[in-house]
Write a structure and sequence with these properties.
Mean pLDDT of chain B: 87
Shape of chain A: flat
Low-confidence stretches of chain A: none
Strand content of chain B: under 5%
Oligomer: heterodimer
CATH superfamily of chain B: Ferritin, core subunit, four-helix bundle
Radius of gyration of chain B: 19 Å
Strand content of chain A: 15-25%
Distance between the termini of chain B: 42 Å
Strand order of the largest sheet of chain A: 2-1-3
Order of helices and strands of chain B: HHHHHHHHHHH
Shape of chain B: globular
Number of strands of chain A: 3
CATH topology of the domain at 2-63 in chain A: Ubiquitin-like (UB roll)
Helix content of chain A: 10-25%
CATH architecture of the domain at 2-63 in chain A: Roll
CATH topology of chain B: Ferritin
Largest sheet of chain A: 3 strands, antiparallel
CATH class of the domain at 2-63 in chain A: Alpha Beta
CATH superfamily of the domain at 2-63 in chain A: Phenylacetic acid degradation B
Chain lengths: 97, 288
């Protein structure tokens, strides 16, 4: 399995469960290229009818935020409650929003 | 050379089998074509040919579980094996009804003798290395796809139903196996050599797939099965396209003596069945 992992890059798999829903990250797998990754994703992640569409992307192509920068990235949003759309008066005619 | 001796002796048996099934067929070919496929014994024999192909190939692919070159391929091969097992179950259940002797699909799957299995010999060939498994799979997937497409419009509704479902499964099987053959053939020198060697070894077994005997002719005449001769050109073109992309050479046609669909098998099927049938024969009627 080591040789395989050395040869085959890692892919992340996203599956859309039903039409109209978003693709959701479901896991990862090894494959030699994107086409094989799709086949493997089909066999690994949709064998119990979990999906109608699959995306695969090389894990190395994903740029992730740095956990050590999390404070700078996410803290500033914490005290800005006014960014949530909760300060509007809803007209009585609107039953549901 | 006991295999060829067996082949010789059963040449006599072959004509008599063909004779018995086509007695109705030979008269009907001239006039009424619909009676030919309508004897349930003949229909059962034909259904067993398709069922056993799926059953034996599924058993072979199952041998890879836990041994495939990668976890992902382990699951890929097992999925195909399960598709094939599903086809075999539906077909054997139908076969059991046609037989009408109260036997079940399990009885037919697990309690027949080797010469009662009517699969083409291609599918009983050992897995060998991964290249041999893939070559066998490509050759049979392309055949099964053409066969199921033909059977999907069969006058036999049960067969048409099974085939309609199986066509979709088989399209994926061929995508999987053809992709792999192209990777192996057009891959490294080692993988190319192995794929070509597997092709040379298995190619002689493909002739049997398209050799029409009396039973095949009767089924085609009755509108139950497609004509095997009609499937050949499409299969050959598809295989040619895949081999070209895989940079593999199509082997020369050679003499062959295989006739698995008449119950004449090589040495390998016996071992496969011994393993497959062991549980049922040791604990008859065992349930989970």
């Amino acid at each position: 399995m080591d040789a395989e992992q050395a040869d085959w890059p890692l892919f992340e798999v996203f599956v859309r469960a039903r039409a109209g829903l978003d693709h959701k990250h479901v896991g990862s797998l090894h494959a030699s290229d994107a086409r094989m990754a799709l086949d493997h994703a089909r066999d690994l992640y949709t064998r119990r009818e979990e999906g109608v569409s699959i995306w695969v992307v090389r894990s190395s192509e994903i740029t992730a935020s740095d956990p050590s920068e999390a404070d700078a990235f996410f803290e500033p949003a914490r005290d800005k409650v006014y960014r949530h759309p909760t300060f509007y008066d809803i007209p009585p005619e609107v039953k549901t929003l | 050379m006991s295999t060829s001796a067996a082949g010789r002796t059963s040449t006599a048996g072959r004509t008599s089998t063909a004779g018995s099934t086509s007695t109705a067929g030979s008269t009907s070919t001239a006039g009424n074509t619909s009676t030919a496929g309508n004897t349930s014994a003949a229909r059962l024999r034909y259904v067993l040919r398709i069922a056993d192909l799926s059953l034996v190939l599924g058993q072979r692919l199952g041998e890879w579980v836990g041994h495939a070159p990668a976890l992902e391929e382990d699951l890929g091969l097992a999925n195909i094996a399960l598709d094939l097992l599903g086809q075999a179950r539906l077909l054997l259940a139908y076969g059991a009804e046609l037989e009408g002797r109260g036997r079940s699909e399990d009885d037919l799957a697990f309690l027949r003798a080797p010469d009662e299995y009517l699969n083409p010999t291609l599918v009983e060939q050992p897995n060998g290395d991964f290249a041999q498994t893939i070559v066998r799979q490509v050759l049979i997937d392309a055949f099964q796809l053409a066969l199921f497409e033909g059977l999907a419009t069969s006058r036999d509704e049960r067969l048409a139903g099974v085939a309609g479902k199986a066509v979709k499964e088989t399209r994926y099987h061929l995508r999987y196996s053809a992709d792999w053959l192209i990777r192996l053939g057009d891959g490294t020198e080692e993988s190319h050599t192995r794929a070509q060697a597997a092709l040379e070894r298995l190619w002689p077994h493909t002739r049997e797939l398209f050799e029409e005997d009396a039973l095949d002719s009767d089924m085609a005449a009755a509108g139950i099965a497609p004509r095997l001769a009609d499937l050949r050109a499409g299969w050959s073109a598809e295989i040619g396209r895949i081999l070209a992309e895989a940079t593999l050479q199509r082997p020369a046609e050679r003499y062959h003596r295989w006739a698995g669909k008449r119950g004449e098998h090589g040495e390998h099927l016996g071992y496969l069945l011994a393993e497959m049938q062991w549980m049922q024969r040791t604990y008859p009627g065992a349930r989970w």
